[in-house]
C-alpha cells in the first residue's frame, strides 16, 4: 500500500491507496500556507500518521509516500519553488522521512495527475502520453515509456508557457503568447470579458452573471456556447483554435500515443472534445498518417491522491 | 563496420564507417530523382557494392547499412513521404535488403545528424539532446536516453513546424507561424528582402549583392551584421529572438541536456551562439535553475554519412 498526498494551495488531501489503485481511506486538512513551511509539513506528517492509525494498517505495510506539489522539486526531494505556498528550497523529503521513516517521492502535481491517468485512466497501457491540465493555468504531465518525465534538470513539462502566438495580455510569467494565456479558464474568461467590454453585449452570458463581468467563469461560457450564443461561441472557438495549436506543437515534437485533456476546462466534456478533434484533423501536418488520440482525462479530484500514491509505487520498485 | 548513406535531393553520399566513427571510404553519385525511385535505389545499391569492392572489405564485415532520408519512414523501413524526391510509400528497406542481404535501417536526415552529434560530436555522452538543423527549413533530431526518438507514429521531431507566432508570410505547409518561417535561412533572407523593399536601403548588403535582392543569402546577412550594418542586425536580431522562443519551448517541454545548432545558419558560429545564449538567459522561465546547454553542432557535411552509419549500428546491436 501507498499513501498519496495532493498538496494544494487551499487543502492538503491524503489517501491510502492499494496496488490496484483503489483509494481505501482519505483525510484532508487546510493548507494555511501563511503559517510557514514547517507548520504545513508538520500537518502533512500528522495526516500520514492519522491515516495509518485510523485506517488500521501497520506502518510497515506502507511501502512509500508520494506527493504532488504545485511547483518544482529536484531529484533529491527538495522543493525548489512552490510559488503559491511561498516555498523556496525546502527539504520536504528529508523532513518527512526523518519523521516518518517511510520513503518519500515528490513531483509536480500535473505530472502526478498524468501518472494517475497512465496507471488507471485515459492513458492506461499507452507507451507515451501527455496530460494537459486546463485550469486557471495549463500544466503538463508527460509519461514516456511508462515513467513520468520531467527532463534532465527537472524543469520540463512546463507546457503552459510554450509560446504559440501573440496575445492581448501578458502571462503572469512576464512573457507574451504563452499557451496558458490562450487555452486556460483564465484565458477564455479574459477574452469573453474583452468581447463584451468592446460592445458584444447581445449575449446570454450577461444574463447568467446578472451583468457582472467578474462573475463570468468557464462553465458559464461553455454552457452559453452549447445554447448557441454567438459571443460565447467566439470565445470557445478561439480557445479551441489555440488549444489545437498547442496540441499540434506537442504532436509535431513528441508524437505521443495519447493526449488527455483534464482540468476545469475539460468539464465541457464531449462538446469540447469534438470541437478539438475536428479542428485537429484539419490542422495536422501529415494528413494521412495517424497521430495522437485526443481524449478526456478520466479522473477529476482523485487524480492528485491516486497519482501521488503511484509516484511512490514507481519510486520504490 | 557500417555503411552510412545520406540520401539528398541533389546527391547520394555513402561512406564506410568503423565502430569508432572513422569514415574509411566515401563515394557519391547524383540523385537525379526525376528518373523515378527504382533507378535511384539501383544507384544506392550500386554505391554499396562499389564501396565494398573498392575499399576491399568483405561483405560480411558490413554489419548494417543506415540511410538518412529527407522525409519520413515507418518502422518497417518503408519511405512514407519524401517530398523532394517525389517518393510516397516506397519499400526502400525491402528493395535494398533483397539485393544486398545486409540489414538496412532508415530514418529522417535531421534525426540521423542528431545521432552523429550524439555519438561523436556536440551531444556526446549526454542523456537527452536535440539537434536543430537551421537550413532552408528547420529539422530536429531528438536523442532520448541514447536512442533516436521519432515518436509513437514516427511523425515526431517536426520541430520546424512548431507554431510560435504570427508571420508576414505563410509556411510551405500552408500554415502561418511555423518556427522555420522565423529562424531558417529562408526566413532571414525573406525578412531582409522585406526590410530593403520597404525602404531600408542604407545597407552594405545591397553592395555585396550588387543591388540584386535575389542574391541575398544568410552568409551575406550575417557578415554584414558582424560589420555593424543596421539592417542586417535587425534581421539577425529577429532571427535570434524567434530562435530563442523555439529553444525556450523545447526547454519548457523536454528540458534536454544539450541543444545543438546545426545547418547553414550555424555557420555564423560563435557570433550567433553568443547572441542566442544571451537572449536565452534573459528569456528562460526558471532564471536561477540550470537549463539546456546551447552549443554549435560539430559536424558539417559528414553528419549525414556518420549518423546513418550509427543508425545501422544502433539497429543491429
Automatic annotation (TrEMBL), chains A, B:
Keywords: ATP-binding, Kinase, Nucleotide-binding, Transferase. Pfam families: ROK. GO terms for molecular function: ATP binding; glucokinase activity. The keyword rRNA-binding does not apply. One of its GO terms (biological process) is glycolytic process. Gene3D superfamilies: 3.30.420.40. Transmembrane segments: none annotated. One of its GO terms (cellular component) is cytoplasm. SUPFAM superfamilies: Actin-like ATPase domain. The keyword ATP-binding applies. Belongs to the ROK (NagC/XylR) family. This is Glucokinase. The lineage of its organism: Bacteria, Bacillati, Bacillota, Clostridia, Eubacteriales.
